[in-house]
Amino acid sequence: MGSEHELPLDTPILYLKSEEAFAGLTSRERHYAHHLSRASWWGGLIVLCQTSPESPVAFSLLTRLFRSQPLDTLKELSIVRIDEFKSLVIHIEVLIVYIGYYLGINLVKCVGNNSFFPLIASSFRAADEYDNYIEITHTEMYRFENAKTFLTVGPNFQDMILFFTFNCFEEDADLAKDYMADRNIEAWNNRLLKYEEDGQTILDIRLASIEQGAAEGITVESDEFKGHKFRVSRGDYANFLRKLNEELTLAKEHTANETEGKMLDKYIECFTRGCLQAHKDGSSHWVKNKSPAVETYMGFIEVYRDPTNQRAEFESFVAVVNREQSRKFDTLVARAEKEFLQLLPWAREFEEDTFLRPDFSSLDILTFASSGLPIGINIPNYKDVKEEHGFKNVSLSNVMAARTGVKGGPFLSEADLSLREKYGATSLEIQVGLHELLGHGCGKFLRVKDDGTLNFDKDKLKNPFTGEPVTYYPKGENYNTKFTNISSAYEECRAETVAMYLGLVNDILDVFGITDEDKEDIKYISWLDMFYAGLRGLEMYQPAQGKWGQAHSQARYVILRVGLEAGEGLVDVVETTGEDGLPDLRLSVDRTKIPTVGHKAMGDFLNKLQVYRSMGDSDAGRAMFEKYSEVPTEGSHPFGKWHEIVVRKRRPRMCLTMPNTRVVGEEVELVSYVDGPESMVESWVDRFAPQDHDFLENFLTQTANAWNK
Hints:
- The protein is α+β, with helices and mostly antiparallel strands.
- The protein is built from 28 helices and 17 strands.
- Zn(2+) binds at residues 435, 440, 492.
């Protein structure tokens, strides 16, 4: 097991502060936030069941250990050496931060060393029934064949993510994709199961829901497609969804308006029946609920972890709106359609007919239940909801503040590090705002509408690169089904490039209150940071599989390659020798070339990204994107060779402990914690009340037994 599979013992664990924001809530709003947070944490446990077989078993086992014996008691056990105790604590950090053993940032398996297992075994000596759970968890956790080290697609899905049963092959996933497109079924909230029944192979599309059994318009008992038997069933994750809905029902008693009530009703319907349309309807109500004091969104949202980029991981957040921070983005949104979107490099026909003004909020996170914690989000991800009702952009201000507090870094000159420290937080705020508000919010999909008509003039619009008629999305197809495994990275690359391109506009910098004397430094740091992220993101590449494990990192690496291809010294990476005598790297950017060479190169690239996306031309889009995604081992920039340097020089990634809420009398209080790994463990022990222990114990038994079958 290599170091990339171990979270360092010195990993920084910080507390995510939200006390000031929470203090500004009314009693009603605090109760609303409390029940939404409880719902979120129950739903978040679904991610364990979406990741790998040992994850839910290990979670149940370790949380029982920490519930039964306080940390101080475990630390004082005579058999424990201090490194073993630290290893145990860091181990559970991985499990609870990423809700499983595969890092949300790069999908690499990360379990730490196994020196703490004697501690677990001794702690459960009186409970023989746990011996089997300990054994199977240890065995599976420390299997490191290729298929067990990286959450991606291989020759088949065996030993991979649990969006598929282990006997599914790539051709099964492709067949299911074609079937769902033909039957107008979207994959967000389902898994693909494959099994034998009465001598026939069944491909079962299993929906997440509390209810089981037949439901008109939702399930299909038997269907045939291209000579294969299909079924659409439901009932996945029922136990967790039942707990989630109980809390949503309680939250309804504290809503601020009718729209919030309708939103929660639709969420409850979706999670009860497995009806995706109900979640789309709930998302529409969510978009209409402008600038609430307490913001929340939950469901099966992001497809980053599915090798085919179709099935979504459960995600839920609860946050308090930072109104003062949100006001500065109002002008940007108000001027977007008539001014700023006009500056983008593609023809007007490839832009939406009407820019649906998004609702932008700067939020302080109370709860974020998923495998990753971003700094900005553009949702909902349903293209039809976005086109008809609009979308929301959220910037997670307290998360951003925590991350920009980390200083220094490899591969840059002292002068650049000094400028990043001075302007990095402001630059990041602008980059995230442009990325989420305009990057994800711009651009049109040429498609067949529900009434069978086209949303563009087929006779007039031509492919600007070939002069031929444009292609478009037929009914039943969408961006994810066309661009499949590159869709997430491609879209993130497009949004990042929009932010770089528009970040050079002085009028936009005026919106953010940047003084004339600081504008050129802000532009420089924005571009330097993007190229720097592309270089550091190389650690997310897995040479053995030839795969990228994280969409944002792949996107930024592609942007770096585009910058290098532009030439003329815009950006360069050279190999050097470090103070330790080992190979090192140095990245540099010529700020004088950004408004000329850089602006043209990124404009040309961005135009292609958008036009291929608009037309659904996945062949051309894929060819271009995969060319820039290559990691060469030779040439002027041998990134394959430099991968070892980037991995060796990487720094521990910060993890954040979130607060809890609890009802005391008739009021809701925020439970705060301090920095450090032990506080994170304490927060998870506090998260589930004593009456929930039996549920978690039963969950342990069920998942362990299912895993053994």
